[in-house]
Design goal:
- The protein has 154 residues and is α+β, with helices and mostly antiparallel strands.
- It has one domain: Roll (Pnp Oxidase, Chain A).
- 25% of the residues lie in helices and 46% in strands.
- The protein has four helices and eight strands, in the order βαββββαββααβ.
- Strands 1, 2, 3, 4, 5, 6, 7 and 8 form an eight-stranded antiparallel β-sheet that branches.
- The chain starts with 6 loop residues before the first strand and ends with a strand.
- 21% of the residues are buried.
Length: 154
């Protein structure tokens, strides 16, 4: 990282960003161009979970190459000053890499969906419609590498 004074090295801060942020973006490769998708997610024990339809561009790309980069930001704020060149942004963000596994079995889907739902405030074990479960897949991103960066006073 070029600006080492902005690097987040505290594992607790990284965990806080992973658990409290709202959206995770995953980037994939589609032949010779990048493809990025914003997703709701859940996080537990170094794994990020997403739910998805079982078909579509994202799934086809992951079947061809399950290696991804992901990005999460937490609490951004534009800091305005009198001079335009003095404006800045207060933020915390993470960028990481890993592999995504496409999960199709019902019990694993329920576990991952419960992690996602609890992140957004659902309390308890979800009762999922079997038809909906059969049409979706769970994406399980195992984090291999992650770096954090922040700007502003926290």
């Amino acid at each position: 990282m070029r600006r080492t004074e902005k690097e987040i090295v505290d594992k607790d801060v990284i965990e806080e960003i992973l658990t409290k942020s709202e959206i995770c973006r995953i980037a994939m490769i589609d032949r010779d161009e990048p493809y990025i998708v914003p997703l709701n997610y859940g996080y537990s024990e170094n794994v990020i979970y997403f739910h998805s339809a079982s078909e579509g561009r994202k799934i086809e790309l992951l079947k061809a190459n399950n290696r991804v980069c992901f990005e999460i930001e937490n609490t951004t704020e534009i800091v305005r000053k009198d001079e335009p060149c003095k404006w800045t942004t207060k933020y915390r963000s993470l960028i990481g890499h890993g592999n995504i596994e496409i999960i199709s079995d019902t019990e694993s889907k329920k576990i991952g969906l419960n992690i996602i739902m609890s992140k957004y405030g659902y309390d308890g074990q979800g009762k999922y419609n079997e038809g909906s479960l059969s049409r979706m897949v769970l994406l399980k991103l195992k984090i291999e590498k992650i770096t954090g960066k922040q700007s502003g006073n926290w």
